[in-house]
Amino acid sequence: MIAILIATAATSITLTEALADNRTYVYDDVIAPQVIQDDHGFLWPKMHVFAGRTYDGANVNPNRTKPWLTNGGLDNVRHTGKRILWIPEGTKIKLRTRRAVFPRSRKSVRRTYGWFPNGSLVAEFLYHDGRLFEIRSRKKTDGTWAEDEQITYFRPPGYQSVNNCVDCHRDIGGHAAGWAATVSGLERDGPKAFTPFVVGNGVRPVIRDDVKHLVEWE
C-alpha cells in the first residue's frame, strides 16, 4: 500500500485525497502490462522486437531506445514503482480507432487513441531498494497535461536529472513516425505507462476487465 501524505499544487484534488479514494486505480507493470501498437493497429508487448525490420539503422521499436526505454533520468537506476490513476467521478477515458498520416514519412497507419477527461490525475511512486525516493504527479486541465510535480527525497546511484518530462510524453504515436510501433500510451502528452488493453502478440485492442469501469469506446 502506498502511504504518503502530500498535496499537489494547483489541483482540484490532492494526491492525498486521490490515494484515499476507493475509485483510484493503483497499478504497476505486472497488474497493467504496457502495450504498443504496430502500423496496422495490432497490439504487442512494450519491448517486442519486430524481427528483420529496421528504419534508418535504428531498432523499429522506439520503446527499446532512449528516451523512452525507462522513466526520465532512470536509465541507470535500479528501481521499482507503483502508479495511480484518478479520473473525476462520472467521466470516462474515451477510446477511438482511426487512421493517421505521419507528416515526415507520409505513412498512413491505424491507431487506437485515448482521451483522458479534464481533471485526471496520475502519479508515480519510485523506489530504490524498498525506499521511496521520488514522487511524480501530473494533472490534465483545460485539455492540457501539465508538467510533472516532482518531489525527490534522495537520489539513488545512477540518477540523472531531466530538464522536463513533457518532451518525452509529447505526441505519443507521432513519436513513431517511420518506426514500426508507437511509443506506449494513448494520448498526446499523456501518461505513457497506462494502457487499458489485454497484452498479446499481434491482437486487436481488447479492454482488460479491471479497467472497464474507466474507459469506453466512442
Verbal overview:
It contains two helices and 13 strands; from the N terminus they run αββββββββββββαβ. It is mostly beta strands. Strands 1, 6, 9, 10, 11 and 12 form a six-stranded antiparallel beta sheet that branches. A hairpin with a 2-residue loop joins strand 10 and strand 11. The longest helix has 6 residues.
Task: Give the topology, please.
Elements: H1 15-20, E1 25-27, E2 35-37, E3 43-45, E4 54-55, E5 58-59, E6 80-86, E7 93-101, E8 108-115, E9 121-128, E10 131-141, E11 144-145, E12 149-152, H2 166-169, E13 215-217
Parallel strand pairs: 7-13
Antiparallel strand pairs: 1-6, 2-3, 4-5, 6-9, 7-8, 9-10, 10-11, 10-12
How would you briefly describe this protein structure?
With 218 residues, the chain is mainly β. It has helices at residues 15-20, 166-169; strands at 25-27, 35-37, 43-45, 54-55, 58-59, 80-86, 93-101, 108-115, 121-128, 131-141, 144-145, 149-152, 215-217.
Radius of gyration computed on alpha carbons: 17 Å
Shape: globular
The major β-sheet equals: 6 strands, antiparallel
Continuous helix count: 2
Strand tally: 13
The arrangement of helices and strands along the chain is HEEEEEEEEEEEEHE
Give the overall average pLDDT: 84
In whole angstroms, the N-to-C terminal distance is 34 Å
Structural class: mainly beta
Binned strand content: 25-35%
Helix content: under 10%
Stretches with pLDDT under 50, minimum 5 residues: 1-11
